[in-house]
Amino acid sequence: MKKMTFGCWGHAFNKRFLYTDKNGKFNEFTLPGGVALIQQLLSAGKLTQYEPLDKTFRCERFELKQFEDKQTRKSYYAVNRYLGFTEGNTTPPPCDAKYAIVSDKGLGMITTPPGNIPVLWASDKNLPEKEIIGQIAERCFLMIDANVLRKSGAMISARISWERSVTELLWQLQHNPALSYLCKVPHILITFAEDGAVYIRRENDKPKASLVLAHGNGEGFLRGKINGSTNDSFALMTVALALQFPEVISGKMPLHILPVLKAAENLLTDGYPIEKLREGILEMPKIETTINEMPFEIPFDPEQSVVDPDFWRISNSASNKRIFDMACEYVLKGAKVIEGLPLLSFGGLTTIDRWEIEAFRNICNLIENYVGSDSIRPLSIAVFGAPGSGKSFGVTQIAKNILPGKVEKLEFNVSQFVDNTDIGIAFQKVRDVTLEGKLPLVFFDEFDSDRNGVQLGWVKNFLMPMQDGKFKDESGEHPLGKCILVFAGGTSSSFEDFSQPMSSENPEEQKKFKDIKGPDFVSRLRGTINVLGPNQTNANDKNYILRRALLLRSLCERKLNMKKGGNAPLNQNVLWAMLLVPKYKHGARSMEAILDMSRIEGNVWEPVSLPFYSQLSLHVDADAFIRLVLREVILNSYTEKLAIAIHEDFCKKNPTSDNNKPWTELPEDIRNSNRDQARCFGKFLKEVDCDFDSGDTPFLSVEKFSE
Question: What is the pTM of this model?
Fold first, then answer.
């Protein structure tokens, strides 16, 4: 018998699918499951042998249902419910092969592949046994679903941020005794559903780990887009990995992770292809093996005792030049530019910063849990940030996306309240919305305002509604009903600033905060967000340019009559100024104001459209902004000086050249050549992650031109 490329071990079984078509006719068909499905998929390329399993094998039954995508109106079939199984054989027939694939479905003991052949061990159900890994570790490539590790006791967060999940994963593999034996395997691929994967390997006897994302959204994003389930995606990803396995395990080529993740995408988005399945065949989708992927190296120190000491941010992995280029492209071309970067998107809210992703994801989880619970106590959230940072925008977008059409937003500015009557009127309006059957989303802006000279004097008035879901007015005590209370800070730029007196070493400061019921207020909060806004928070904050780009793109889509996903009608010099101006005096409001004040005629936002100097000065350093707009003009004014300097430098390095003569004596074609080089100076600076300005703006200077 011919030796096959792949032999298959592990668990094999039949899967019986039952469904009723749109005409009411009952149908059923059988597909292989477990390693038998992998055999069938590989047999199409004659990489292994496959024969349908007989009736002696275990059979699992599923009900399929036809669903409809609400957005595209496209119908698809997916598993609606599991109907149980009948016992039977789960051991596939043996096969002589060069490589072994093991599919562990948690159905009992697995025979170890014989000899010394390389093994691809794939499991989305069980951890491989410690004894087996000890036998095959050095010739093994382990592919395992992250949920298997979680079920085995690994504390790995889900749907908070990619950075948090993967740093916790690496720490657990090194320090959790239930998992550490897996580190003996030289190649490990941990998949997070079909949305991302971490590849751990040894390079020069040192452990390395990298993350690749299919799209940038969180774990479970693709599965969440469909009703029902399609439970064969792991088998498709296993086969996609198997096609690379011989070359990777031998060291002849690096692993390409994105094709592995993309292998299951069609099944998740389109459902089961019924016509083909009736023939008992699930086909392997065509995968583009040359897909450009963006691997992010994960900080990995096996001796590290703390999970994430430096609060790693994927977006900080890029160079300043890469971040700036990405920001420019995003404004001009839209979301396709940041595919593969971690992001969170709800309606008009998009962020790529880990701080904000984790905070907003936490708020999203809180709101989802609150909406699904029987609790009538209000959900209380505090939001902090600089003025104009968009404190209310993000929470509003999340709430309206979770409950479209059922959320009514109410806003009250506490700094304008005079006495308790104003608070009573505000809460009565909240109650009215509740009685209408809607969920009030209530913003108390500047809740930390003074009252009659008392710092944070209004805070204690919110304690009863937050804790008991009741409020008092002149007519008595009233139930508030289910609602979300959002307290937006006006004097504190962060929650840490607001709550700092609680940990102060100054007893008087602690007592003051306690007297105005600050600790009681904090104890009633269920979530906080520090909104960063478009200005740089500190010298290490490289993401502010991307935050500006996200906001600027959103403003352009709303105000310049452009199609969503289309190219932004924005002049390059205006774009540079909007992204690089040192500071927006009023945060996001200033960015919006500059666009609103621009006199845009035609279809492009040109320099001539910009507001007058006096108007710009209200929102930015007008001198710095205008110099950024005129950067090319400024640099071109130095063309002759730069050309002469280039020639003089050439003469120093080439004293015997025929062109070693004064500038005025050079032929015109040689002088033009130097001028052409001078005009490229801006591009050269950009390539080394630098730029230029006129020398009197707030940017840090690296070098200055001499007079």
Answer: 0.82
